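Quick entry between incubations.
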Amino acid sequence: MSNAEWEVVIGLEVHVQLHTRAKVFASAPWGFGQEPNEQVDPVVLGLPGTLPVVNREAVEKAILFGLVVGAEIPAQCAWDRKNYFYPDNPKNYQLTQKDFPVTMGGKVEIELPGASRNVQGEHKFIRLHHAHLEEDVGKLSHSGSGSLVDYNRAGVPLLEIVSEPDLRSAAEAAAFLNALVMMLTQAGVADCDMEKGQLRCDANVSIRRRGETKLGTRSETKNLNSISGVRDCIIYETARQVRELEAGRAIVQETRGWNAENGRGYVLRDKEDAHDYRYFPDPDIPTLKISRETVQRLQKQVPESPYARQQRYIEKLNVPYTAASVLIAQSDLAQWFEVAVAAHPSNAAGIANLVVNDLLRELSASSGAAEGADIAKVSLASCRIQPAHLAALVKLTDEGTISKQQAKEVFTEMFQSGQSPVQIVESKGLKQNSDTGELEKIIQEVIADPSVAKSIAEYRAGNEKAINALKGPIMKRTQGKANPVLIDQLLRKALG
Amino acid sequence: MAQELYQLSATEISQRLAKGELTSRALVEALMKRYHALNKKVGAFTHLDEADVLAQADASDARRKAGKTLGPLDGIPVGIKDNIAVKGQPLTCSSKMLAPLVSPYDAHVIESLRAAGAILYGRLNMDEFAMGSSTENSAVQKTFNPWDLARIPGGSSGGSAAALSAGLVPLALGSDTGGSIRQPASHCGIIGLKPTYGLISRYGLVAFASSLDQIGPMARTIDDCVLLLNALASPDARDMTCFNKNHRQQLPEVAAKSLRIGVPKGVLGKGVGAEVAAATQAAIDFYKSQGCTIIEVDLPSSDLAVPTYYVVATAEASSNLARYDGVRYGHRSANAKTPIEMMTNSRSEGFGPEVKRRILLGTFVLSAGYADAYYVRALRARSKIRAEHLAALEKVDMLLTPTVPTPAFKAGEKISDPLQLYLEDIFTIPANLAGLPALSVPCGKSGHLPVGFHLVGAPLSENKLLAAARLFEAAHGFANQLPTL
Amino acid sequence: MSQGLDIDHLAKLARLNLTADEKKLYTQQLSQVLTYFEALAKADLPPTADVAMVVDESALRSDEPGKPLGAEAVTKIAPASHDGQISVPRVVDDES
Ligand SMILES: [Mg+2]
Ligand SMILES: [Zn+2]
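Done. Structure below.
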């Protein structure tokens, strides 16, 4: 594939289920894992005579999203009917917003993968066209000669976020979705649990020769339900379109599906078969005025954006990028971290490392998550360590009260019992050996050992690093209890 | 001659019940007796659960005995058009499509009637899905005009109007999208009110055209109409188009001298039958004689009303009726191999010809390439019609016209000519397009057939219209007049 | 005369089967109605329609879950069901 010659242009339409208790136009509850058709009321079922009433929380969640991405919140929004027949669509029209969506514009900051895991990649802004509030449809399953319909999902609030065609690679698309998920979950707008189908995506893909400004003919692949699915589909679709054009064939505007199992796309329908949705304003839902007071109130709920937070951690707190990038993915984790830092501000990096490496590993292991599972999604609910206690542990280590090795032991105990590190250190007698007399004796014994004579000579000749060869045996004789700072001091004194 | 119970107005019934001169049970037994004698002939009711009616009447009598009467409607039967949901009762809209459906919920107006102690008294025939002006489009049965059984009662609330004028029930609910309460009221010599759009919740009213539909009271006297209206008009958060303030009011006494009545230019001209024109003119003359100011008004876009209405109404209907597909409830075709086939066959078997015609028309006016020329232009025309009416209603208190150009026609006469039938609604449609309250009041006869005049007022001026109509009613003998059957 | 009326296309969009006679009749009747609608095309109209109805946020529903019907009530009115779900002939393609 001669990708060097071709540029791919991608726009995404992302459907996310909003975090509400009741449905978007009905009071029926919704939630995952219920028995079929138990979350259905006359309105959801589209019984004759029923009418939609818009859920305030759904509107506010949509506005909040708009504020998170810096979108305009128009003074009015309105709903339209999109007419098409399908057994999972109870009214055979979907209530959606075509001309007057709840948010207009906005942009999402994305971070591309760096050269390696430790290197921060390039940042870009992807513009949004708009986001609109609509309803989900029911679920179909197939059994033998028939199909079965469960309307529990019907009427669940969906925010459809429509990007401009600003994305230029599968990696950018994935980065965009990662950023969106962070923003949506951190603002409490949506849970974005892809395993529960809470985020689904349509990808509009076209290619053009590099340098060309006109957009090529696009295909739209519907209903991608994971970030990796979006990435794979875009790679596949780009290759397919390059192949077509290089073979002298034209790209046809079509709607496509994606088979995640075999990693292949397929045609659903071409332009000729395109639906005639006969959109018109829904006469049951009047145009809705959005007050500026509501917008101002919601503006206060907008959290710090994930990449602004990452930058602050790196620049102000001296946290390494690798740790910062993990912390920002989950706002409760970042908040946990910040509470800890407040208790011991002088070593945020030390705290960050402990959180990102030890704490997440233990939480992940104790939750029974599979090896390699997305560690950032771990729940802090079951965490017995308090942020201040973790800070205290780092402080004890920094002050030399306990060694790093002892710290690991204390951490494990803290994770299991929820006790404070001070308590653990005391009850286990883990206090680091700072008895100078005893330590001086051990140092004298070690430096008298002929096997280290060479190192001593090198040190005395000016090789600073040679001193390290002596520290291991000393530490070993103290069973790891010696304060490394003290060892260093006394050793230098002993060697003159 | 002693008055039979079936001849009593709801207001009289209410007084007699209050005085203990009558029980609800005695009343419904008399009405059911009449139902058995006449319903086959008139065809007004499609369903009457007599045991349920008796139970409701007994409950009302028990409340009264215990001193816990719920209000002036307690114990009074109200007939329900079969497009309003009553929990546990059929909701057929006189269509094969919904024949199997028993509603699992109550409409807002039904909850209100229950709360007022009214007796939910049977289901009334209608044009299928309220589409028609003669009730001939019912898939269930024919309804005949009690004044002349060879003629239609009007429609789509033909069952409601016929039941009232046949003395089968003292009050009834109708619904009005383009004249469906007022046109049959005029044809059957009764009173029909289409309230201001938004006054009465549509929750539980099966939608024909959502932006035009309103439930309204039908009765034989103005006082009865007010009694029922006040029970129906209350805020309901389940209908976003329903006002969220309470607009129930006492009927004001209006001084005829202060009333300005507008008569549209040329309204009694072409297309209006001579006797209809004469009866309407007599009503105008009556108001003039009482000291009202009669003002000629100009409504230049009147000619656009019928096309605008049929574009908007059919467009909305094509979408509103899409849900009837045999999947979740209602009729399902037995022979289909795919869902598309099942939906298509179910709809083809379930809908009658007028419903299909309107679905096709509505689908066309919304379809790609035509929506701008038809649907969008109709919305613009609707704005213009509304603006002209509101402007006229700043200069006058109400507009007066005939309700229907000609009296009730013979059954079968116009069924094959949809366009002719669409013109029946020429005077009633603008009130729906503009969301205005409108009332049909009996005002005379064309031969042996009743004729009504039509009052249209500014939004929420129901009480003024009703008060003006009561002036007329008090001076004439048309109230509570029943034909001999 | 028929103003672009493609009765087969309309019937398909509206999910209706029409017999040949019905197609003929409806084409003729709808054409007549559409001719009558030409008054709209000729009329001098405002450039845009007014917004039909506007409400403020007080018309919105609070996010309080209400009581659902329950699967039993849902399947009771359904023409065909299986284990709480509504059954339909097999959906061939998952497109929507
Ligand atoms: Mg889409
Ligand atoms: Zn969507």
